[in-house]
Amino acid sequence: MLWVKAFHIVFIASWFAGLFYLPRIFVNLAMVPVGSDAERARLLLMARKLLRFTTMLAVPAVALGLWLWLGYGVGRGAGWMHAKLGIVLLIIGYHHACAVLLRKLAAGESRRSHAWFRWFNELPVLFLVAAVILVVVKPF
Ligand code: HEM
Which of 38, 77, 88, 104 is the most buried (most CB within 10 A)? Predict the structure, then answer.
């Protein structure tokens, strides 16, 4: 079980590296001056590649967590696990929101300011802190 937990943490950390950096690219995209097509195309390419890579990391991160929970029964019926799963659903929703925002940015339909994307970029920090406290401290 410890190998599963070890790789769960490795993939969680990698998933979050992507979730921290992707909205950063959105901040830059929202600040690209009109007419700077080359810079816009470069940032869009980076964002698409990073989204694909981050999604590939999210799958084993969640799968290994489910293995710990359902396979080994760790946290089954525990309040902290249910709360953690709630946070996980928010994280998956955030990941999906990044894909939708990228589609809108690529189509030139995004009306969000760079300031909005800076606040949006802070959310994964809150999710990570909440999930790690729940699973390590197990407060309830
Ligand atoms: C469906 C998704 C997930 C499930 C079912 C899940 C389940 C679990 C389970 C059962 C453990 C073992 C807890 C223990 O041994 O005490 C664990 C460990 C851990 N999980 Fe998850 N997890 C999921 C997603 C996440 C996410 C999104 C994060 C971080 C944001 C995360 C962070 C951790 C950490 C840091 C540990 C190690 C805790 C320790 O060693 O005390 N997990 N996870």
Answer: 88
pLDDT of amino acid 35: 87
This prediction has a pTM of: 0.92
Print the domain residue range for 70: 2-137
Structure tokens at 74: 């760790």
Q: Residue 15: is its pLDDT beyond 90?
A: yes
Number of separate helices (H) and strands (E) present in the chain: 5, 0
Ligand 1 mutation pick, 8, 16, 59, 90, max ligand atoms within 8 A of CB: 8
124: CA distance to ligand 1 center in Å?
Answer: 16
CB–CB of 4/69 below 8 Å?
no
For ligand 1, say whether the CB of 75 is within 6 Å of any of its atoms.
Answer: yes
